[in-house]
Amino acid sequence: MKKKLLHLFFASLTGIAFAVAYAFIVYKIYTLVTQMGGKFLAKFVPIPFALGMLVFYSFYYRWAKRFFFYGIGVFTAFVLFVLYSPNICQEVFLQYSRIGKQEQAHRFLSLADTTRVTANTRFSLLSPKEGYQIKQCLLNENHELVVLYTEKHYVENPFYISGKLVGEDPFETPPYMVVYDTIGKVKYSVFLAHPEEEAIGEFLLKGNYIIDLSTYEYANYTYDGSFIMQPMEYLAGYDPAHRETRAPISYYETFLSDEGECGGYPAIIGIFIEDDQAYYFFPPTSEKNTQYRDDQDENMLISNLFSILEEEEEKGAYSFERRNILPQDFYYEYLTMNGFFRNDQGENCEVTYSDIQLLFDLKIGKDTFHFKKEKVSNYKGYNQLKTPTYYIENEEETLEKYKDMFLYTNKHLSYAIFYDGEYVYMIK
């Protein structure tokens, strides 16, 4: 009995030595050849351990020697097959990652299917209005949204007439004002100009009048949509007694930065109306989200939480507490391999990306919605579930960020704003 235990002890030591040697080889495969293959082969560490035990027993038993040679031959062929056939490794890994998850995923609605998402009346997809730069955003007595576009930009000029004062370039739009009705559609436009020269400057909307900030005087004339000179009383004459039932205006505007079309970058600003106030919301793609902040303007509430969030992320201020964006699970759609790069230690690392389906719950008030989102991720898809959540709050607003998804709430608003990384939704 003691002899058998002694043999088992030394056989185990030999097995451990084989396993360590195999782990070293797998590490070299992982760092120098293929990360995916290395991770896959690491799952088979028990086989070298068993082969090591067979080496010891082969000195005492003929059957052990036979099994060892068969085993080492087959396993070596398997390792080489994995190294030179990465597709089989991918397929095995994919099928393994999907076990028991695809049926579960059917309960989750794809965010890419915006038609089905907005079939729920609580979700409204915000559609963009492109090509404008906004300076002022106010409501008039009829609860109509008045937006003042003051920055000259290079889009097709709707007011262009050759030889007139409304712009010398058909693709250069001088300042103008747009009045939206209570459901967010354009009611009319007014081009801002002095009677003798084109007006390129800063303007402030005050009541029914427009002030030229370069002279601090009332603008004398405007052009309406028919290019006829009109006095400023063009804006007067509203009847507050005939106010319509308003729906919140929900859209966002896209524009180019003032660095120019070539050197600039796209940015987005959102406009939402609640309780007779115009609120600005900056989706995360806006890199210049504080350039419109004006503390002098009491009629605007402009969110600058995204700029604060950027600072907090740099500090590493995060939490693993989940409040409203609740990651549940994931599975791989497919994997792609994309070459190598050399890290700081001089090691070759394979650049591997994968398309995954991230399953998560979105909690709005007492209701929970189940969504799935296709993401391009690195190979370590399980890290999606370990990603922290960032929370930025002030007295009125809360911003929750998980991966590239954002949930924005404001105590003045009866709805939340959800950005899924591609689309912006208003959730009632």
Strand order of the largest sheet: 2-24-23-22-21-20
Based on secondary structure, the structural category is: alpha+beta
Treating each run of at least 4 consecutive H or I residues as one helix, how many helices? 8
DSSP summary, beta strand count? 24
Helix content: 25-40%
Rounded mean pLDDT is: 64
Question: Taking Cα atoms only, what radius of gyration do you get, to the nearest Å?
Answer: 32 Å
Approximate shape: elongated
Number of domains: 3
SS strand fraction? 25-35%
Low-confidence stretches: 152-171, 194-201, 223-251, 254-269, 282-302
Distance between the termini: 75 Å
**Major β-sheet profile:** 6 strands, antiparallel
Keywords: Membrane, Transmembrane, Transmembrane helix
Question: What do you see in this structure?
Answer:
The protein has helices spanning 2-33, 35-42, 46-57, 62-84, 86-98, 102-105, 114-119, 305-315, and strands spanning 109-110, 123-125, 128-130, 136-139, 145-149, 176-180, 186-192, 203-206, 209-212, 217-218, 221-223, 229-231, 250-256, 266-274, 277-281, 300-302, 325-342, 348-364, 367-378, 389-393, 397-402, 405-410, 416-419, 424-427. It is an alpha+beta fold and 428 residues long. Helix 3 packs antiparallel against helix 4. The strands form five sheets. It has a six-stranded antiparallel β-sheet. A six-stranded antiparallel β-sheet has the order 4-5-6-7-11-12, with no helix packed on it. A five-stranded mixed β-sheet has the order 3-13-14-15-16, with no helix packed on it. Residues 152-171, 194-201, 223-251, 254-269 and 282-302 have low confidence and may be disordered. It is built from eight helices and 24 strands.
